[in-house]
Amino acid sequence: MKTKLAICLLLSAASIATAENWAQWRGPAFNGSTTETDLPTKFSPTENVVWSADLPGPGAATPVIWEDKVFISSTDAKADSLEAICINRKTGEKLWQHQIAKGTRKDYRSLFCAPSPATDGEVVVYFYGNGDLVTFDLDGEKLWARNIQKDFGPFAFLWTFSSSPLLYDGKLYLQVLQRDKPVEGRGLSGQKNESYLLALDPKTGKTLWRVVRPSKAREESLEAFSTPIPMVDDDREELLVVGGDALTGHDLATGKELWRWGTYNPTRIPHWRLVPSPVAGGGVVLTCAPKRDPIYAVPVGKNGVIPTDDLPWISEDEPEVSSDVPTPAFYDGDFFVLSDVRKALTRVDPKTGEVKWRLRTPGYSKYEASPLAADGKIYLINFVGEVVVVDADTGKVSAINKMDEPSDNPVRSSVVAAHGNLFIRVNSKLYCVGE
Fold it and tell me: Is the whole model's pTM more than 0.90, yes or no?
């Protein structure tokens, strides 16, 4: 009896160890991966669905999960509003919903609910492209709210601003990397618009520090839609920030710049806005140049200005190793780079840049959502809601699962995994999928 009990306890402990929360946009390791196992390969809106929940409107925000709660930002198409929603992870029942603001967009390409929420198990933060920043406890009680545009000036972006909040080590981090001059009436007039990093107390909303981030970029190349990412290397913790033609590392306590590499834009092309966030792994940080340009591997643990000659590799000889929008994932010791413009997924060695395998992405629709890496699989989702499952070892397509119909609003929310299930957000539904 004691032996059987010991085995049961070991199995239970192993099960608990593999059940992870997905509390931030890029997951528990901030790199698009998770240790979740037994995730499904084949599914549909009616097959291997644990539950589905109706959403009031489209949105590009990725759901985040903490224990038995799923948090998601959405629009309400009928009310023309921005919503903060919480759903029961086990049943799909809506637990609470709060209207944040009226108005869902300022241009035809994007909605204000592109930033993903973030939680630390005590508070959940919702941020929107109109500047609204609102925090609740996990039961839906409002803690505090601010509007970043009202506090620090209107955003100077040609398109809709989007950068997800980061909760890490007791602080809430935001970045606003924007133009120095107004564009089409957006931004401060009569003075320079500053790009900055911001740290707040997540429980009170109090500003802890605001640090200006300088840049040599010009015009639209000053704009970044990336998200700040924490990195730990040899007991050194940093905040990684990319945009404005440069990658920088910052002290988490003060925001002070520790090092800088730049640039992926030596000729200062003025229309190179940046979308992919940095991703660290294998002793390097990947920086994706815009459009169809290469990826740069920047060494970690440096100080001051890092010369380009010190970079271990640049993907100049591998044109498919490129990304204009998706952020790469790091998993099983390698990077998985999804190129929306080159229509390819590649597995890349972090030390050498060697391509271990290459896959042309299936179908004709674009893939802008960042990949999920888990359970020996890579999960991709395209504009029409087709979830492609790729074997991480071989690069072969295991399944193509149609989860939505084409619409005027492309699917841009990444597939995530938590507690043994996949969570797939399409335009009007959130699916919890599992075998």
Answer: yes
